[in-house]
Amino acid sequence: MDTVFEFLTADDRALFMEKGEIQQFKKDDVILEEGDRRRRLFVILSGSCRVERGHLGKGIVIASLGMNEFFGDMSFLEGNGASAFVIADEAVEVLIISSDTINALLFSVPGLATRFYQSLAVNLSARLRETSAMFPKLMVEEIAEVQLFSPPHTGQLKGKDLPPGLVRDVESFKDAMLHTEHMIIQNQAEGEHIQRNVEGACEELKSSLNKHIEQEALMDKAIGAYVLRETFPHFMTSSYHDRAYTKPRGYSGDYGTIELVYANEAIGDGRLGPCIDRWELDGASCDAVRNRRDMIGKLIRNSGEDWNGDSPMPICSIASGPAREIFDLLDPAAPANLHATCLDIDAEAIEFASMIAQKSGLGDRFTFGQENVVRLALGRGRIRVKPQQIIYSMGLIDYLEERLVVALLDWTFDNLKPGGTAAFGNFAQGSKDRSFMDHLLEWVLIYRSPDDLRDLFRRSKFNDTPVEILQDSSGIQLLAVVQKN
Q1: How far apart are CA 246 and CA 236, in angstroms?
Q2: Which domains are seen in the chain, by residue range?
Q3: CB-based contacts of 417, cutoff 8 Å, min separation 6
Q4: Which 3-state string (H, E, C) describes 44-96?
Q5: CA–CA separation, 8 vs 83, rounded Å?
Q6: Pairing relationship of beta strands 313-318 and 338-344 according to DSSP bridges
Q7: N or C: which end of the chain has fewer CB within 10 A?
Q8: Computed over its alpha carbons, how large is the radius of gyration of the chain?
């Protein structure tokens, strides 16, 4: 308790130790229940705890606490119920002091009240400063695709300045869509014939967009804005396109978008919406998203076969989203022996995956935590992760600038067990879907080569450790895998 309550004297601390009650808790014991109205202060003398908010019977980790940290101060001051559970992460020894005891000491010891409340004020101020630092970038801090002040799409080029071939191709696309819709109305075509017409028109438009942006690289934003404006009514009838473009959770690749890709069911509005959706879901980028689910699943399963620890193999998914790759491994027919820590900034994503875990009877295989992984990498996170055998992220670092990727790799190195594995996915350079994603979905990524990924690992604490680069069948998804020496 030497460093608890900054302004207390050694005699003050000794008095608290004498008058308080010391209790021991085992791993996963609940020390403080959410809603508990008893006014008490808790000081952690040894061990560590996690702070959880309840959701559907499963706790979502929102912070970690260690030795010489305290909790219960808000309830002590306000008299309201505790806002979260505090649970032992390991064997924990806690000093518990009731409000009656504290008030008696504050009344009887000269100057103690001033020193005590000044200590509480400084602690609360630090927490408020930390919370305030998370806004306004809570959801999308330093993500590549996010533009807080988006430029307008109009006025970038006059019609006469646009490449004539591009204008013709866009008009041909619109004519093809209109003609196909008329065919449906007149019962002149159905099924596969309609799908072929839509796919052909979409592919020709995408090829034209790629060609003209490659030829006129300095006009890419103007070309993209023109094609988006002219084709918007058609593509927005696709459910996948709609979600990726509108970004209801703040960025395109949120858990809901990934779920649509995994489900791979064509959904849309109007006569052609499902056909456009089918074309997009069959595209190479969506195929890559499904492939990386299998790639990381295979990596985890292979590592699990070599795991000989007494407890389940600990793995950590960063920006975990729906975490389907983990649920795949926990199939009742042959469940892998693992415990997964899933971290994501999006509370809705965490709640979604937590709900699946509970309904599947797998709640004890997961720890879910809401955390901004960028802040985590920069040493400003609120959750502490115990050493892991595997730490991975399938779709995060292609949103992050190099310095943030290196910081995240450093954090990964520090939190891996010796011999543990790190795996990070990134979309590859040369993707033929890039212009379509950049301009029609406004889904902007940082595309990298295998050498780019190796260089990022080399600049991190992994240093010159050999990096294996895996590539999926679409050629778009890269997965960099490295073992901590």
Answers
A1: 10
A2: 10-132 (2.60.120.10), 159-282 (no CATH), 291-483 (3.40.50.150)
A3: 314, 387, 388, 389, 484
A4: EEECCEEEEEEECCEEEEEEEECCCCEECHHHHHHCCCCCCEEEECCCEEEEE
A5: 26
A6: parallel
A7: C
A8: 27
Question: What residues contact 368, with CB distance under 8 A and at least 6 apart?
Answer: 58, 59, 60, 61, 341, 342, 350, 353, 354, 357
Tens digits of per-residue pLDDT, 253-274?
999 999 999 999 999 999 999 9
Per-residue burial over 426-449, b if 16 or more Cβ lie within 10 Å, else e, is bbbeebebbbbbbbbbbbbbbbbe
> Partners of 315 in the beta sheet?
340, 390
Phi, psi of 300 (to 5 degrees): -65, -45
Taking the C-alpha atoms of residue 348 and residue 51, their distance in angstroms, rounded to an integer, is: 18
- Cβ atoms of 50 and 64 within 8 Å: the answer is yes
Beta bridge partners of 316: 341, 391
C-alpha triplet 44, 47, 48: angle, nearest 5°? 80
Q: Please tell me whether residue 230 adopts helix, strand or coil conformation.
A: helix
Residues 6+ apart with CB under 8 A from 185: 271
Q: What angle do CA 122, 128, 134 make, to 5 degrees?
A: 145
288: part of which helix (H) or strand (E)? helix 284-305
Task: Give, in order, the Cα–Cα distances in Å from 3 to each of 234, 243, 379.
Answer: 63, 49, 21
What is the distance between the alpha carbons of residues 110 and 116, in angstroms, rounded to a whole number? 11
Confidence of residue 338 (pLDDT cuts 50, 70, 90): very high
Residue 123: per-residue pLDDT: 83
- Which DSSP letter does residue 397 get? G
Closest by CA to 238, choosing from 256, 259, 265, is: 265
201-235: pLDDT as tens digits:
999 999 999 999 999 988 999 999 999 999 999 99
Question: Does residue 457 contact residue 409 with C-beta atoms inside 8 Å?
Answer: yes
Torsion of CA 188, 191, 194, 197, to 10 degrees: -130
Q: Please name the residues in contact with 363: beta carbons below 8 A apart, sequence gap of 6 or more.
A: 57, 58, 354, 357
Q: Count of residues for the chain?
A: 485
Greatest Cα pair distance, the chain, in angstroms, is: 94
Which among 445, 433, 424, 422 is positioned nearest to 475, based on CA atoms? 433
CA 271 to chain centre: 35
Q: Peptide bond preceding 322: is omega within 30 degrees of 0, i.e. cis?
A: no
> Model pTM?
0.79
Residue 24 has phi, psi (to 5 degrees) of -105, 140
